[in-house]
Lysophospholipid acyltransferase family protein
Amino acid sequence: MGKFRNLKQKRGWAWWIAVPIVKPVLLATTKQQWDGGEKIPETGGCILALNHVSHIDPMTAAHITWDYGRQSRYLAKSGLFKNKWLAGFLRAAGQIPVERATAGARAFDEAVKAVNAGELVVVYVEGSITKDPAGWPMVGKSGAARIALETGAPVIPVGQWGAQELLPAYSTKPHPFPRKTVRMKVGDPVDLSDLIPQEHTVQVVAEATHRIMDAIVDLVAEVRGEQRPAELFDPRKAGVSATGNPNKKPKK
């Protein structure tokens, strides 16, 4: 599990409120199996790139980054910011709203600024909870790759499994008992050194995205103890939406 570190960053007011509430709840409802957490850089800007299996994922990711001495910033869907009170809390906690309609251009700029300022930014590379029927990562979006290529900051891949047992995908009903085991394995930084100096063309971004997703899938295979799929699930080829609940019937 590695040796946990003391938090070195200054805590904002939102973190002073959230940590004493959220962490005891997670400790009461989950068992943590952190592997490789010491690979999370102690200081400096970086991108933590994870697979996405549950709406509770940001809490479990915040848990491991907190345990290893970092506060995390997230790319969060803009709908969460419609409530002014929640929006104020999320912004105070450093979260970054993503407008999917504008391809997240503003969020990209803010994420780049945060990484360049030495912060850790969490990115769920798939852009949404996986639509793969077996829960494996689906094809990735380019956000993490573009931030990394723009900043030159390290991309730290993480494979996770188990959070979906606490809160199944798109469910509002958690299953807290018995305690669920959340497994996270942190990998070595993804090598993008040959791509960063190049012009960031569509092909270069696609290659960077492929390398990041490849590292994540390998880690997910390890925490699941299973062989990785030969090909990642592609929602477009399967005829399902890449975002939102695939089981929800459209409004008439």
